[in-house]
Amino acid sequence: MRSCKSGAACLLQLLLTSLLLTGLIAALLPVPGQAETPVPYRAPVDAEVIDAFRPPMGPYGPGNRGIDYATTPGEEVYAAGGGEVTFSARIGPAWHVVILHADGIRTSYSFLTSVTRRRGDRVGQGDLVGTAGGQFHFGARAGDEYIDPSALLTRDVMPEVALIPIEQRGPQSEARERRGLLGQLGGALLGGLSAAAGVTDRTMTWLQRATTDAARGAWTLTEWVAAIGWDYAYGQLMQVGIQLQIAYLYLTQFSPAGMALYLVEQARRAWRFQEGQRNCTPSDRSVPPPARTRRIMVMVNGLDSNGGEGRLLGLRPTALGYADADIIEFSYRGGRTGDVGAASGTTVNDYSPSDTHGDLRDQARQLRDLLMEVRVANPGVAVDIVAHSQGGLVARLAMGNDGDRFDARLPEVTNLVMLGTPNHGSDAATANALLGTTVSGDIVRDAVDVLPGVPELDATSLGQLAEGSALMRELDDQPLPAGTRVTSIAAEGDLAVASLNSSLEGATNVLVPIRGPRAHTEMLSSPEAHREVALALAGMGPTCRRVSAGILLGEAVSWGTDSFGVLAGAAAIYADHQLGMPPVQPPDLSDALGVVLKARRR
Asked: How far apart are the C-alpha atoms of 226 and 126, rounded to whole Å?
């Protein structure tokens, strides 16, 4: 250290050092004025506690991560403390609200029939949050830890709120707030779900009895709506309508009377693969070289694809005779992607997997607009469309949507080749839709969503892929475009879309020997599928092969997936019932169901 040259300099240096040390110490020590003021809390309802806080032994064990009150339908629920509403939405038929308080605690108000607050609203202690049903659940979280709400109300044992991470003290995205709330409810519901899954006979007996009791003693729709309010009634009608619709599909398969009709339909679908072999191409015959006539290939990817990846480029379109300037990958944001092909005269947009989750009708309109741009930029040039999974449905809708399918604004589409397309819906999507009508099932879906490779299970497009959905019924009534050769290629062991669900009347139906858990995506890189695409584009029949074993495997996949859907859906409905959800008995829907289904189609 340098020595001071004068007494004044030494005094100045000592003063500066003292100030520096004082500031450092002040920064390290807590400041009394910044200490958190405890937030006062009060009970959200004046009702009897019927189930106290019982933390589960494990993440999937039985328990109760909150307090349940025996409320009466329509009873008002108030904010336990002041704060900001970070979540206000339906999960299943009921409403749920989460409030973030100044001390970092989140309180939740669950199974409400109506709400008066929306995300972003500020509330004070005692402000009205909504109305309860027959049972109300009150929860509390300190960061990721679920705490006993009674500790907030009595101040006997306060949680260590100072340990809540800074990043969790502010409002999170709506998805993260929802995930935290589902975890709050999951301790009890997942335990009930696992217990219900182990008593299949009891579950099915209860379902049969509940259906009979509801038909005998149901309220009128007017009385029911007056009792709980239209907002809640509409949500529950929607859920019950979907449940009844899917239950009907399963009954036609698993009941003795319906099984005959089911087997007849499956036999028709299987026969189409046999019919495809009438004009088959011997396996030792090579595909002819591509025609010299200029053609444009439009590729439409499936669910959860990513723009610019070129999933369908494994088909080697340049080897099939398409110039790089004539290769177009459809963008789910409209137009084409910028990293695939070198086509000009069309809108360029990249897209992310989330863009594939929207309404397929909207995507079809965007594809139709792209085809019109292609025609304007390339007058007189024919187009071939090759599509994977839901992309095939988007293409079918685009070619017959919004008016006359002979629209002169569209280019001539010579071929439509679909790979793994659920032309009759997906069994897995049907099971997923049934689970989504229950709170228990929604919690399970939310837990599965975090697994790699799993799409967003509450995506709109995935719901439209369920058997019997309004979109699938619309496609059933829509004829295939005249003048276009349509080919549907299915993998024998496709678990995502059972092969018989790809069978399509009026198309050339092809079955390829691809099996395994990833058959749905591996078919895009399979030499067998590549050959079938090339044969279809050349106007030739599929490769000659025996398809009987593949048909039986496809039926086994479909049957197994539907069996899982029945058991999982019944267990989820039973678990909701055992745990008091929904909070009111639904009415007789015999007259109202048609209105609800029409509203869904709109």
From this structure: 26
